[in-house]
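This part of the workshop introduces the protein records we will be handling. A record pairs a protein's sequence with a compact description of its fold. Comparing a sequence with its tokens is the quickest way to learn the format. To make this concrete, we reproduce a full record directly below:
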Amino acid sequence: MIFKGLKENNGWMMAEYSATWTYGYDFMLDAAQTIIDTDFRDRLQRVATAEVAGAGDIERIDEVSTCGNILRDCPSVCEECGVLTVSGISGIMECPVQFVFYNQTNLVRLYCPFRQYFEEHGEHVFDNYMNSIEIKAYCKDTERRTIAKISGN
């Protein structure tokens, strides 16, 4: 992912990234699941969807928890939407983070409540993390599509 900038937004630091390609909802689910599985694990705190950017979020964490934190097992999360948000405590970066994915764009926003985290480590502190998420999500997406094609689905 390409780092686009850092700014403060309502007390949180917001880092904007551009994915390598414009993505769709399947990629959003794969990226969010990658974050949940490889980093948040049992520290997932929030999953929300919104019909379009700017619309009010609909909280989905209770349903996601009931489904064992598997997004594709949650009917309401599987319904395509414009915005998908996941938040939790990052075991890798050792801080709270929130990711917001915007359907049919290449925009991903990362929020962190600690300005000093960026002051100490630089504004590119999350670049490797974001690149890893993008690569893993594209691998998951490719694997899922390949399996579907082979099985005729």
